[in-house]
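Q: How do we represent a protein-ligand complex in a form that can be generated token by token?
A: Start from the inputs.
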Amino acid sequence: MKTMFKYFITLMVLSSWLVSCGDMNSGKSSKQGALSGNAAEKVYVAPGEHDEFYAFVSGGFSGQLAVYGLPSGRLFKVIPVFSVDAEKAWGFNEETKPMLNTSHGFIPWDDSHHPDISQTAGELDGRWVFINGNNTPRIAKIDLTTFETTEIIEVPNSAGNHSSSFVTENTEYVVAGTRFSVPYPQRDMPISEYKGNFKGALSFISVDPEDGRMDIKFQIMMPGFDYDLSHPGRGDSHGWFFFSTYNTEEANSLLEVNASQNDKDFIAAINWKKIEAYVNEGGGKKVPANYAHNVYDDNTHTATSTMKKEVLVVDPTEVPGAIYFMPTPKSPHGCDVDPSGEYIVGSGKLAAELTVHSFSKMLKAIENKDFDGDAYGIPILSYEATLAGAVKQPGLGPLHTEFDGKGNAYTTFFISSEVVKWKLGTWEVIDRKPTYYSVGHLMIPGGNSRKPFGKYVLAMNKITKDRYLPTGPEVTQSAQLYDISGEKMELLLDFPTVGEPHYAAGIRADIITENSKKFFKLEDNEHPYAVKSEAESKVVREGNEVHIYLTMIRSHFAPDNIEGVQVGDKVYFHVTNLEQDYDVPHGVAMIGANTSELLIMPGQTETFTWEPKQEGVWPFYCTDFCSALHQEMQGYVRVSPKGSNVPISFTLDGDPVDME
Ligand code: CUA
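Then emit the structure tokens for the protein with dinuclear copper ion bound:
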């Protein structure tokens, strides 16, 4: 076994060397490939025309979610999710700071991985997109009417929240699985006692069908393996969820060797409907926990953070018939379910072939008790009993598979740097196309649903090298778009991405655009510091706090000149954009403020704070070019020494107003 393992390592090293050596030549030939035929025409979206698809591409270590159009590859928006964002004041303004609260305090960064769009009856409904924070385990929900993050729930008993965030067929649940197993309960203990003591939590987070509110319904406390990726069953397999595992060795050191010993790891099959019924009847155990649940309200334009103190935990051995292991060679990464729900594809990173399990055979094997022992009381199904077939010698280093809805699967191969198209059922390879270079995830719009839209596959590559103009040692990550409408794939386009994408979710644009919000209604604004007309604007001192109720409309602030602020005060700018029209944001920035500017949408109120350190007269101004007189949109704050008797006063519509 060790020899076999060494062979794979050698292969991996050798192949990455081949990829890097091949760069110089392959760059040229691929460019010629893309220029052949009418590739340019296929991605050309004429000025003023719209793209056919939205692609939500994860930001990886940027912590955000980027929105692109396909086929053009144009970037429309970077939605701030887990990381502060100075452009939109996310995590800087008072309203959104609670969104980044966790049991570890304010954590203004995360590693965002796998977006997944909400579904109804197995088809994308375009209501929300979910994404996981990998590092400090969290699941976020983005409202696709506003393209804003409206909810983040922390996941307790979890670490390296990687097999997340995938939704069931009717968005009953968004599911999160831990990559790293941890002591359960979390405690001070020797790491060498990992085996048997560490557990891997699989969390089922319910999603309210009306308002989308998330709540951890239950956590299954699994053996201490690494739960890498997951996908829901659909069609006949709806009600089940599948998780790939590695490190079934339960090694705790030098995993690249010690977690590559077993010939087969597992895909865990979870009958969540059975467990749901069990907990609905009072099953499971409520255990103490500490995790944040952060919700943004579109009427108050403000987030609240609540610390939750309890979570319902299920011991898998207490729900017989709900959980099984399917042996899968070898350290499987991707765990992908085809549109019919019958096939579960396990991509063994170190395996020579792609393993495909059959859901119907799995049910039969369960019925026949065709077991090959157990792991911690969880039955292991016999390998042959669930095997649907294998794709022989498909490539090196398989990672992920998506589906076109026409009976074909597309798998990425990191080491041999290619996308391979193969046929479900016959397992024959139909086509292969190189990627530039070393592809990770891929995405077909709607690929994780009963009804993929097909048409394109987007490859997200891990290595960029010579694909673009050099930008110093750090180069942008690269995505590549292929036309998959024909028998053979055709490379159409390279485009740069934000951060390092791990997975994306694509949807036909019209499903979202028909519900897209244009602005917030001022009359619905319930922000406690909102003012709905200039006449209500004011400045109020409360001890050493000064609250400025500021409004903005083209092209002035009300009030503009403010006096009576002192060194040592904490000044709150509560700023309402009075505009009621599409695409008229205003911004506001204050010299020396230890926050970002605010970018405020029509009808919205946001707040930033400023603690003036120096006496003087200090300007603020609009940061968003809003009109021909944008440069005139400015004001001053007079800062007097601490204890000064200059009263609070300001100018409104050019006239002085005295507050004291
Ligand atoms: Cu308002 Cu520029």
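Residues 552, 555, 586, 622, 624-626, 630, 633 surround dinuclear copper ion (CB under 6 Å). DSSP finds seven helices and 47 strands in the chain.
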